[in-house]
Amino acid sequence: MDECLFCNIIAKKIPAKFEYEGNSLVAIQDINPKAPVHLLVIPRKHISRLSQAEEADAPLLGEMILCGKRLAEERNLEEGFRLILNNGPKAGQSVFHIHLHLLGGRVMSWPPG
Ligand code: 5GP
Ligand code: ZN
């Protein structure tokens, strides 16, 4: 996955601000934050989009959500945070390596655009 931005960030070939580095996941600061807290929870395994995930990825997908929850707790965001997974270009996915956005630190409207 030489061409993949997030694979290159995970391999430390492209710099990023890491907030968490685990066996199966990392979390980095988004380069263009949309909220005071905007982190990306990224599995080390390259899965291009949620549509490409398989049943065998269920534990990994669960870990991503729990990692987002833990990062939110550590940042005292219990009053409100969002975990967002964009799947496909029409949903706003721009990097095709699955990732969960953690957004928090401000009031958010509903529905998202
Ligand atoms: P998507 O639009 O695919 O759901 O989210 C991709 C996210 O990656 C965007 O919020 C974008 O700001 C972020 N991003 C794009 N390029 C880089 C980069 O080089 N470094 C970091 N840390 N984030 C990036
Ligand atoms: Zn990748």
Report on this model:
The chain is an alpha+beta fold and 113 residues long. The protein has two helices and five strands. A five-stranded antiparallel sheet has the order 1-2-3-5-4, with helices on one face. The radius of gyration is 14 Å and the shape is globular. The model has no long low-confidence stretch (mean pLDDT 97). Bound molecules: guanosine-5'-monophosphate and zinc ion. Zinc ion binds at residues 1, 4, 6-7, 46, 97.
Summary tags:
22% strand; alpha+beta; 20% helix; 113 residues; binds guanosine-5'-monophosphate; binds zinc ion; 2 helices; 5 strands; five-stranded antiparallel β-sheet
Topology of this protein?
Elements lengths: L4 H6 L7 E4 L3 E5 L7 E7 L14 H17 L6 E4 L15 E5 L9
Antiparallel strand pairs: 1-2, 2-3, 3-5, 4-5
Concise description?
This protein is globular. It contains 2 helices and 5 strands; from the N terminus they run αβββαββ. The chain has helices at residues 5-10, 58-74, and strands at 18-21, 25-29, 37-43, 81-84, 100-104.
* Distinct bound molecules: guanosine-5'-monophosphate, zinc ion
Largest sheet features: 5 strands, antiparallel
Q: Could you give the count of β-strands?
A: 5
Mean pLDDT: 97
- What's the arrangement of strands in the largest beta sheet? 1-2-3-5-4
Portion in helices: 10-25%
Distance between the termini: 31 Å
> Which structural class should the secondary elements be placed in?
alpha+beta
| Elements, N to C (H/E) | HEEEHEE
Taken from the alpha-carbon principal axes, the silhouette is globular
